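job 3f2a | input accepted
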Amino acid sequence: MSVGYEYIKVLLYAYPKLKELAEAIAAGAEIKALLSFRSAADTQKLAETIAEEIARSEQLLELKEKMDAVLRVCGEEELFLLEYKYFRRTKELNCRFSGKGFSCSERTYFRRQNALLKKLALLFRVRVMSEEDFLREYRNFPVFLRVYRVLLKGEERKVVGKRRTRRLYAEQCSSQNSAASGTGFLLPLRTKMAIAAADSPIASKTAACAPVREETASSGFSAAGGSSGGER
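job 3f2a | predicted structure (232 res):
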């Protein structure tokens, strides 16, 4: 994994859940405000916390809009690669890319993923944010930082599940069952909604990450799956 691309991967893994995450944070801020009369916390401190959560929610929605704009310049094959590796939305892979294959060797697959990551890194730095911006703006946001730390340690398999098969095409779309049926199809694992929780800010880019089980990253964006095959 190329140095300096970790934050790009964090944003890509988070992308499918940004809207839900923003809405969850906004809802939490609203609840805090409604129940503020019950809080034993200092009034000013509580007001600051609510304001910060509202700002975070708006920030995530703005981030999604910027990422939407970048993804609109990607070709169909690039979107397929992103969906397959990072977004992992079963419905999208089964329906939008139904019957579309990606016939290539494993070496070619990784080479194209790396080329796509480099392209996105350039676009993100210009249209979304740089790594410095990422660390500054999300230094107190554990949902992103814990995944970022895992990636820095080269343990991406702890963020996403391993694949059971190497074949790179999707199941035919079915209105009755959108899950995998039969063999020979490589489907994405369902993502979990990332839940924001209080955490201490990252001390530095190389700060150690708290232990995370390989089966599922506690603050990641997707559940782990099978036990065969490498991270793809």
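job 3f2a | The chain has one domain: 1-232.
job 3f2a | closed
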